[in-house]
Amino acid sequence: MSPHADPRRKNVSDDWPANMTATRRTGHAEGGPDPTSPGIEQIRGGGETELLAVNADLREQVRLFEAALQNMNQGLCMFDTESRLVVTNRRYHEIFDIPADAIARGMTQHDICAMLIAQGCYPPSETLEWIEEATRAALQSDNGLPILRELADGRVLSVLYRVIQGGGWVSTFEDITEQQRSAARIAHLAHHDVLTDLANTRAMRLKYLDLIEATDPERPLLAMCYIDLDRFKFVNDTYGYATGDELLQAVAVRLRRNTRREDIVARLGGDEFAVIHRITDETDAPAMAQRLVDALSRPYEISGSLIEIGASVGVTTRPLHDVDIDPLLHDADLALRHAKAEGRGTFSVFDVGMSEAARARRLIETELQVALAEEQFELHYQTLVDADGGRIIGVEALVRWRHPERGLIPPLSFIPIMEETGLLLPLGNWILERACRDAMLWPDHITVAVNVSSEQMRQRSFGDTVLAVLAKTGLPARRLEIEITESSLLEESEVPQANLAVIHDAGISIAMDDFGTGYSSLSYLRRFPINKIKIDRSFMKDAETSADARAIIRAVSALGASMGLTTLIEGVETVQQLEFARLEGVGQLQGYLFSRPQPESVVTKLLYDDRLQAASEQ
Ligand code: C2E
Ligand code: CA
Ligand code: CA
């Protein structure tokens, strides 16, 4: 049966293309009578000249129509009600690469398709029956939607079948291979990381769904490795972004080489990558992680430079049927953080403890934000004593957190977290102002020492902030001491140095805290405007038992004296320690022997009592 054999439809093969031409001329697609065009009666009634003129007009229309048909960008075939070819165009021959005389008016669609199949135009899957069936279905629905059809040589055609009003049907063929290719390229780009051509996060999620759908009883688990490169920022900063990009590409190649084809390898952004793969046993995961660490840590040769970086990996495993990828990512990320905390260049396997630690950490972060807003912090002060006369010369401000349920929390339990979350800056400002305000309550010779973190010192405005606080509280500069640690000076950046200069020039004293625990570079003492060395309390603790500790205390106090710096030793708890420190020439003392850190009201009383006693002794 021909694909289109509706007996109600009129055979158009006889009066076409003349009737198409007439339709075009009147501009009425419906082909109905047009009041402005000359009717048949009129033509008949006219003279011979008129008839000739009309014929000439028709010929011209046919010529124009022919030109339009042959210059169309689409291949076209028009069939009559019996599916016999009425007209076709040059483009149709071009698309199917068939000679001009291969098909002729009157051939059925069936014959034409058979001929195209014989010529090998269609892939073997497209049989004659299939094509005819598809054509019939398209004509029946007549919905104006094209059908995509692939040719044997890989080109893609968009084919549209439309029923012609009044009978017959027309098919148009458009070669959309190029469009398809660029659409495929766009789709590829949307799913791939442009730099490394690995899957991007979006594609990773989709591929993950495919992976868990294709169940494999042999390998019922999957492992996710979350990878972060160590020292990548250093490479970027030192060699430039172009080298950094090449390095990321080289990393992608190594990841591919060390994974199976079916594994998902994705770049999550920056220098972070993920590998998801099926495993047989939980113990396969660490082996995989180790392999990745090793593979990524071998030196890279990039544009003539030998570059060494490392990789940290967090790994977690799951039964394959777990549909949600987010918990997997989350756990692998926690394990990764753990690996980094372990000193990088290694991997960590996730365990529940990490999750609990992270939860606790998040809780404390939120609590600290509240604490800052509600001013749950308080300052305690510990006295600094002159080694010669035993008089209090100043105090050090030490912060505490009064937790609504857990009571007083020591600074080392929250300061590092606040530093990481950026909360230490506002807290630092609060501490500075509070300490200066409290100091205004005390005798005029009492100094107040405030600990300043390296993050505060890195703030360009810090020096000015200190001066502003003095102006605001009215505390004279000579009564303030800023305690810094060596880590503030380690950086190459000029900001901490500029801050030190501002502070020093204003007449504020600067103390180097915890001396002896870090690099203890003596050059710092010369290069920066330091007034005081605070010898770390670990030396005092060891002084009784360790000759080395004693030698260091002695050397530092001698060095301080020769450089005109004040020396102070922390952690004086016993009379013996006090005697020893004095013997070694340490100028100032601090420790539980004199006073523990105390709230402002207690220390204020202590300071006035001490002044009274000093006066009475004179
Ligand atoms: P630090 O600056 O070395 O402060 C001295 C620490 O030694 C204080 O601990 C103090 O209570 C303790 N200490 C004093 N005398 C003795 C003693 O005789 N024996 C022993 N065993 N310990 C003694 P705290 O208050 O727990 O502070 C610990 C650290 O927290 C401080 O060490 C400092 O690094 C930091 N910190 C405290 N307050 C602040 C602050 O306001 N800002 C900043 N950035 N850091 C602070
Ligand atoms: Ca200190
Ligand atoms: Ca200290």
From TrEMBL:
CDD domains documented for this protein: EAL, GGDEF
Ranges for domain GGDEF: 220-352
Renumbered residue ranges of the record's region Disordered: 1-41
Domain EAL: start-end pairs: 361-611
UniProt keyword annotations, A-Z: Plasmid
PROSITE patterns, alphabetized: EAL, GGDEF
Entry annotated with the keyword Glycoprotein: no
InterPro entries per record: Biofilm_reg_signaling, EAL_dom, EAL_sf, GGDEF_dom, Nucleotide_cyclase, PAS-like_dom_sf, Rev_trsase/Diguanyl_cyclase
Pfam families per record: EAL, GGDEF, PAS_7
Compositional bias of kind Basic and acidic residues: 1-13
Keyword Thylakoid (UniProt): no
Xref: PANTHER family: BIOFILM ARCHITECTURE MAINTENANCE PROTEIN MBAA, DIGUANYLATE CYCLASE DGCP
Protein name according to UniProt: Putative signaling protein
Organism expressing this protein natively: Methylobacterium bullatum
